[in-house]
Design a protein that fits this description.
Elements: E1 2-7, H1 20-28, E2 34-41, E3 62-66, H2 79-88, H3 95-112, E4 116-121, H4 125-136, E5 141-146, H5 154-158, H6 163-179, E6 182-185, H7 188-198, E7 205-207, E8 230-235, H8 245-256, E9 265-270, H9 275-284, E10 291-293, H10 299-307, E11 311-315, H11 329-334, E12 340-344, H12 348-356, E13 359-363, H13 367-382, H14 392-395, H15 400-415
Parallel strand pairs: 1-2, 1-4, 2-3, 4-5, 5-6, 6-7, 8-9, 8-11, 9-10, 11-12, 12-13
Helix pairs in contact: 3-4, 4-6, 8-13
């Protein structure tokens, strides 16, 4: 079985959405002839931990952890200056980890006779480590995976760096694009953007989206819930463009119009939030009784919450570049058999919701559209008619094992042999 070095700074037991893609590839790669060796950071000091995600790592998979050197996790008197340092490091705060870990990564490749490496971002320092290794060992095959765009990332576009830093990062990005053997993006639009913005051809590019792991749903109860309140569940982060304001406003308007009766709706927010700030926002909309902040929970518990819902809520902000990416939870929602209220801008996420028939889409900036969908779902729930028929022929394309096979096929091409 050919070994592949998986370079992923973010890896369990770190929690959050960023680790899901990497750990699921690690989970399934053995099925397709590859033995993953994970190269990552230590998690001491990490603020978001989910030990249950380690259950996805197959027994015997080697995980090499090096000191994190994460400025944002410093304690004591150095905490504030190092937080400032984290914001100015190029390309991100994992730069120290890359610099301090590169010799260990090189030794790992040599000791274990590794012929193919895979790097994933964010952080983008993962790719700088891959670039270093490729230059040291030119014959090694290097596959680069972009979960999100780099210099064209919408959140960077909203808060652009200064011209000097922007130029430095663009040069870093282009070096990675030109020197990698194969490149993977999360969506077709991301792929097109990389090609157009960097003036390169697309021969090395492939698209592998995020997905859901059907094994996460084993032994889960898919029975339609019998809630005494119409229950909506949102799972995921709320930051930057991804704001709940219009969703909250729609609920408030329906209450004010007496369409939603008192004590008949419950919204659960599940994720890593600034709870005091979010609670103050909820209170300002007079939705204290309707909206509950659950906070961050282990991944399996998160799925249980999704299955306890009458409807699921998906939110993504509008703005330049928003058409290029899916929000990660869209794929997990697909497998819940629960209707989705999708609050999205035009783009690939909206197209996928419509194609898979998992729910109804309201434009991110249109409160009335959001109101109408909530009203539709609420009234059908009252009549016990909140049913829907998703297209499982579309949905099954996003199962994690299938997607891992696509990754293994790229490894095969890089190593120029075919498995039976």
């Amino acid at each position: 079985m050919e070994k592949v070095l998986i370079i992923a700074n973010q890896f369990p037991p770190m929690g959050g959405s960023g680790v899901q893609r990497s750990v699921k590839f690690v989970k399934h790669l053995r099925n397709f002839g590859y033995e993953p060796v994970v190269f990552t950071r230590e998690t001491k000091g990490a603020t978001l931990i989910d030990e249950t995600l380690l259950n996805d790592v197959p027994q015997g998979v080697e995980i090499i952890r090096t000191k994190a050197y994460e400025p944002s996790e410093m304690q004591g008197i150095l905490k504030i200056p190092f937080k400032v340092l984290a914001k100015i490091m190029i390309p991100d705060s994992a730069r120290i980890w890359f610099e301090m870990s590169k010799k260990q990564a090189l030794k790992t490749i040599q000791d274990k006779n590794i012929k193919v490496i895979y790097t994933t971002s964010a952080p983008y320092s993962d790719h700088l480590l891959g670039l270093y290794l490729k230059r040291k060992i030119p014959n090694i095959k290097w596959i680069v995976d972009f979960r999100d765009e780099w210099t064209n990332n919408p959140y960077t576009l909203d808060n652009p760096h200064n011209l000097i830093r922007t130029k430095i990062e663009k040069n870093m990005e282009k070096s990675v694009l030109l020197e990698a053997d194969y490149l993977i993006t999360n969506t077709p639009v991301m792929k097109d953007n990389f090609i157009k913005n960097n003036g390169i051809n697309g021969k090395k590019f492939y698209v592998i989206p995020n997905g859901y792991d059907e094994e996460d749903f084993y032994n889960m109860d898919f029975t339609k819930p019998k809630n005494d309140k119409f229950t909506m569940v949102y799972t995921g982060a709320l930051y930057g463009r991804r704001k709940p304001d219009n969703f909250f406003n729609a609920i408030k308007n329906l209450k004010d119009k007496n369409i939603i009766k008192e004590n008949s709706v419950k919204v659960k927010l599940i994720g890593n939030y600034h709870k005091d700030r979010l609670q103050a926002q909820i209170d300002s909309f007079n939705l204290t009784n309707e909206i509950e902040i659950i906070g961050y929970v282990p991944h399996n518990v998160c799925i249980q919450h999704q299955l306890s819902a009458d409807a699921l809520v998906l939110i993504e902000g509008s703005g330049i570049g928003a058409n290029a990416f899916y929000t990660g939870k869209i794929f997990e929602y697909m497998n819940t058999k629960r209707p989705v209220l999708a609050i999205l801008p035009d783009g690939v996420a909206k197209d996928l919701v419509l194609e898979s028939k998992i729910g109804i889409v309201a434009n991110t900036d249109n409160v009335l559209e959001i109101e109408n969908i909530i009203k539709n779902y609420y009234e059908k729930w009252q009549q016990n008619k909140l049913d829907f028929e998703p297209d499982f022929n579309v949905i099954e394309k996003f199962e994690r094992k299938r997607l891992t096979k696509e990754l293994a096929n790229i490894f095969d091409m890089a190593l120029k042999f075919t498995k039976n």
